[in-house]
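INPUT
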Amino acid sequence: GDQVEQSPSALSLHEGTDSALRCNFTTTMRSVQWFRQNSRGSLISLFYLASGTKENGRLKSAFDSKERRYSTLHIRDAQLEDSGTYFCAPSSGSWQLIFGSGTQLTVMP
Amino acid sequence: GPKVLQIPSHQIIDMGQMVTLNCDPVSNHLYFYWYKQILGQQMEFLVNFYNGKVMEKSKLFKDQFSVERPDGSYFTLKIQPTALEDSAVYFCASSPGANSDYTFGSGTRLLVI
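OUTPUT
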């Protein structure tokens, strides 16, 4: 919603390149989860962070532990299968995740 | 990894009829959720369910909506009666604790005609 701003809204990369996606929050968040939604609509969880950084293969995510108002997702050596829409979804501590508008990533050969 | 299963994957229904969307959450998860995504738009929270009760719901969770999980079976979202604007993909999710790692299902694509 309005509390979550994702950038960029769309991104095209060539295979093998690196990039970073960012989410800014208008208020302090307790945790953040990153998802990739594929072309069939399935939502795949990439990372859940309450603080600090996590890495999984070519993906790495960070959640600002001080002010807790932004998070990043880094993609290294992009591959065709990384294409999809990436959502960050922070939680302020209530029962719900607040989804951003997403970054539509296209990886080209 | 553990999965959330949603049945059916697609449903077409006449406006005014009742529909029940079924969700089989991850087995040791205690918190269950429904989210709604209209085509091309972002995911929006509908409702959270824990210990047999609705803990929080959004303004999208209209009076025509209800949720239950009788005796540990499917976690269901019932819409009665359906309206055209209920057409969307409905995602079920579960988590082991409050505000912890969510697992989402693949969604049920509902079309109300």
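end of record. Chain B touches chain A at residues 31, 33, 35, 37, 42-45, 48, 55-56, 58, 89, 91, 98-104, 106-107, 109 (CB under 8 Å).
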